[in-house]
Amino acid sequence: MKSSFLVSILFSILPPLTLSEFVTSKNGLQVDVYHLPPAPVVYQSSTNLSFSPTAFTLIHGAHEAVLVDSPATFLQGQNLTKWVKDIAGPHKSLKYIYVTHGHGDHFFTAQQIAATWPGCQVVAKADVNAHMLQQYEEPLFTDLWLSLFPGGQITSQPFNATLILPANGTFEIEGHVFRAVEVGQGDTSNSTVLHVPDVDLVVGGDVVYGKCHQLFVEDLSPQLRNQWIASLDKVAALRPRFVVPSHTKPGDGFAPSHIADTKLYIRAWEKALAMSTTWQELEDAMKTQFPLRAGSFILRWSSQAPFNVASV
Q: Which residues does the UniProt record annotate as the domain Metallo-beta-lactamase (predicted)?
């Protein structure tokens, strides 16, 4: 990320508004989703852009629970912790926080949240854990994460997952198997999804998107975008009944059609990029084709990256 990349998210002025959605209940497990609302950003003097909304999934049984991913800032972590307590109730314990991939907005508060429940472990595949540690390397940490979340909002102390999953990627609560499926490329490398067969569920991380603009800053070549499509085929092969994208809006639903819609967006991006001579043309083309998608900052950043206006 170039050092000139300056973004300030105005989290301090945001009201603590969230929305909880029930997904499904089956075989002694229940699935609920916490929606973190979009945050306004200031980027390259523009004040009308917003970061993408993000969903965090809680899968819980009679006594134990698994949280998938955790947000970036301490305040967001506090609010998510309160929600987990409210949903799970006093008689359930959060046993695991599973990290789908190495982007900081999906794990920075994992240790903070885990500390609320004695024995709670932060869980990741080995290559995801390595990717997490890379987020603290310079200049990436300062130029991206500290500019996104200034003023002591995020932890600056690198940490490892406390449970590195075996090669088969499985862990359990109350006899229910959870499987980390390493699909490869999503909007970043070393991406996984979490498959929970007993509730016909896939939590899609940043591989499957809802109605939010998709990040292409780390998918600048056609080869990488084709790999992302291949990853989506791997998700579809799991034949889930419910799919929770990490970046989605309340009301987008949890249908498997998100998989095909994510592919559609990638292919539309490919065509729009080929026809665009400026980042403005690319951004406008995607806005026109997908007017209901959220995350205008992600669209702006992604549109500029192929034209070397902003790049990782």
A: 53-247
Measured CA to CA, the distance from residue 239 to residue 260 in angstroms comes to 13
Whether the per-residue pLDDT at 47 is higher than 80: the answer is: no
Residue 42 confidence (pLDDT) above 90: no
Tell me 307's DSSP state: G
Residue at 221 is within a domain: no
For the stretch 205-224, pLDDT in tens is 999 999 999 999 999 999 99
Bridge partner list, 46: 43
- CA 304, distance to chain mean position in Å, is 21
Distances in whole angstroms, Cα of residue 11 to Cα of each of 21, 151, 215, 304 = 23, 11, 21, 24
Q: Report the candidate in 97, 118, 64, 108 with the shortest Cα–Cα distance to residue 163.
A: 97
Instruction: Report which of 40, 37, 132 is spatially closest to residue 76, judged by C-alpha positions.
Output: 37
User: How many domains, in total, are found in the chain?
Assistant: 1
Q: Is 311 left (phi over 0), alpha (psi -120 to 50) or beta?
A: beta
In a domain, 310, yes or no: no
- Residue reference for tokens 């970046």: 247
- pLDDT tens digits along 152-211: 899 999 999 999 999 999 999 999 999 999 999 999 999 999 999 999 999 999 999 999
Q: Which domain holds residue 88?
A: 7-210+234-257
Q: Quick check: helix, strand or coil at residue 231? A: helix
Q: Give the ranges where 151-278 is alpha helix by DSSP (H).
A: 222-236, 257-275
Q: Which two tokens stand for residue 164?
A: 């590195």
In a domain, 275, yes or no: no
Distance CA 102, CA 72 (A): 12
**CATH number, domain containing residue 19:** 3.60.15.10
User: Which residues, at least 6 apart from 263, have a Cβ–Cβ distance to it below 8 Å?
Assistant: 229, 232
